[in-house]
Amino acid sequence: MSTGPSDAELIVRVLQDDDRHAFSELVRRHQSSVRGLLRRLTSDAALADDLAQETFIRAHRSLAQFRGGARLSSWLFRIAYNAFLAHARKALPPLEPQPPQHASMEAVLAKADLAKAMECLKPEERAALALTYGHEVTHEEAAEILQWPLGTLKTHVLRGKDKLRARLTAPEVSP
Amino acid sequence: MNDPIDPLLDEPQPYLEDAGFTARVMGALPPRRSRSARTVVLTGAALAATAALALGPARSGVSALFSGRFEWAVLATLALAVVVGTGTMISAVLREADLA
Predict the structure, then answer these.
(1) Residue A101 forms contact with B (CB below 8 Å)
(2) Residues of chain B that touch chain A, judged by Cβ-Cβ distance less than 8 Å
(3) Would you give per-residue pLDDT tens digits along chain B (100 residues)?
């Protein structure tokens, strides 16, 4: 089965010849994971796609700075996170998390509006959870992508999960 | 005991169809570097450098050669001017052919 040129080969073609076809192939390969990460971070598909577009444009501009030893997806995730963070600092006031409540597993699953619950998290907590769950990224890789110490990453994961648990198990508020 | 949050977070992310996303990114990229403009600049620079050398040190070298006041240093400058100018022009032409 032919898999086509590797990411590294495509990057060389972009850098040497400004090969737009090679860059479009890179975008096609990684668009789903980058857009998916940003959708988890923003809980807004349209905004996520705007930030993903910005991510790939920045990547094209800075491709010469990509170190071949790292995975391209990790490098793109870092650019995506920085784009999200810049947007979040301008636009997203953090919501106050609900106080912790006790609830059954069924209650948690019944209120599994995870995307909405993610909105109560700080950008750093969202990023830690979005990367470490569902993207096959280890804690070590996530810490490198976010350029945090490993301990900081784990702290954000724990705090994020605590807040999600509180949010998802809080009783419904009657209008 | 398992954390009830884990299954929610662990849900595999579905593949997102491209749906024109790549085309939008490619349309938003800055225009390509112009090959022709680059070649014109390189060739022009080579010609200017050659002309500058020919009107300066090389000219005095040729006149010195014919007047019998031959100096090796001046001849070397003349040779260098020819080599640099020719080399730069060949490089520009080869680069253009490689990119085409």
Answers:
(1) no
(2) 3-16, 18, 21-22, 24-26, 28-30, 32-33, 99
(3) 577 788 888 877 889 999 999 999 999 999 876 666 666 777 777 777 777 766 766 666 666 666 766 667 667 777 777 787 777 777 666 655 444 3
